[in-house]
Design a protein that fits this description.
It is a single chain. Helices cover 38% and strands 15% of the residues. By secondary structure, the protein is of the alpha/beta class. It has a single domain, classed as Alpha-Beta Complex (Spore Coat Polysaccharide Biosynthesis Protein SpsA, Chain A). Strands 3-2-1-4-6-5-7 form a seven-stranded mixed sheet, with helices on both faces. Helix 1 packs antiparallel against helix 8. It starts with 7 loop residues before the first strand and ends with a helix. GO terms for molecular function: GTP binding; phospholactate guanylyltransferase activity. Keywords: GTP-binding, Nucleotide-binding, Nucleotidyltransferase, Transferase. It catalyses: phosphoenolpyruvate + GTP + H(+) = enolpyruvoyl-2-diphospho-5'-guanosine + diphosphate.
Length: 211
């Protein structure tokens, strides 16, 4: 279906559940802000993202970098590899740490894509080919997927304005119409967009439970 010419190993970093996605606190329980409800939402989003990525054509290994014990246990139950955080703090350090444990063809995927469709990720890999490339978020300023050229370092530059930073680093912006791959969730508005696309099963169940 897709001309995916190489297999890419993906590293997916996730903060501890109590620290991740702070701007979404209250989204799971109608503004109450219960820490347990928030942690359950972050866990569901991460698991939906990881399982969708792992089933995409062209994806080899999926390695989650996290030191959260609950998430680690949940990932082990579904057969996903986990690597504890390295000594250096920060998202880009976590990505370099994970990439160093993977093969010569590596990419980085954000962990907050609860509507991710495997077919869209496969299409992005096919469009990238052997190029250093990235997929911008739906606003066009951030990055949801970064792919290194085979045998080259990942060189992640995530943060504010990462789409520009990755372009300046030589990465080619991917232009496909992939709403689920571009819809990372940082705010309640982002969650609403992802809901319209269609949440993965764990995120959808979390919202049913909190309704």
């Amino acid at each position: 279906m897709y001309d995916v010419r190489r297999t890419v190993d993906l590293v997916i970093p996730v903060k501890t559940l109590d620290r991740a996605k702070s701007r979404l606190v209250g989204a799971a329980d109608r503004g109450v802000g219960d820490p347990a409800a928030h942690a359950a939402l972050v866990l569901a989003v991460a698991l939906d993202t990881v399982t969708a990525a792992a089933s995409a054509q062209g994806v080899g290994r999926v390695l989650v970098v996290t030191s959260d014990p609950e998430l680690t246990s949940a990932l082990h139950r579904i057969g996903v590899e986990v690597l504890a955080d390295g000594p250096e703090p920060g998202l880009n350090s976590a990505l370099r740490h994970g990439a160093a444990a993977l093969g010569p063809s590596v990419g980085a995927l954000q962990a907050d894509l609860p509507a991710l469709r495997p077919a869209e990720l496969s299409a992005a890999l096919a469009e990238a080919g052997d190029r250093r490339a990235f997929c911008a978020d739906r606003q066009g300023t951030g990055t949801t997927l970064l792919l290194a050229a085979p045998g080259e370092p990942l060189d992640p530059r995530f943060g504010v304005g990462s789409a520009t930073a990755h372009t300046e680093s030589g990465a080619v912006p991917l232009t496909g119409d992939w709403p689920s791959l571009r819809c990372d969730v940082d705010t309640a508005e982002d969650l609403a967009v992802a809901a319209r696309i269609g949440f993965g099963p764990r995120t959808a169940a979390q919202f049913v439970l909190s309704a």
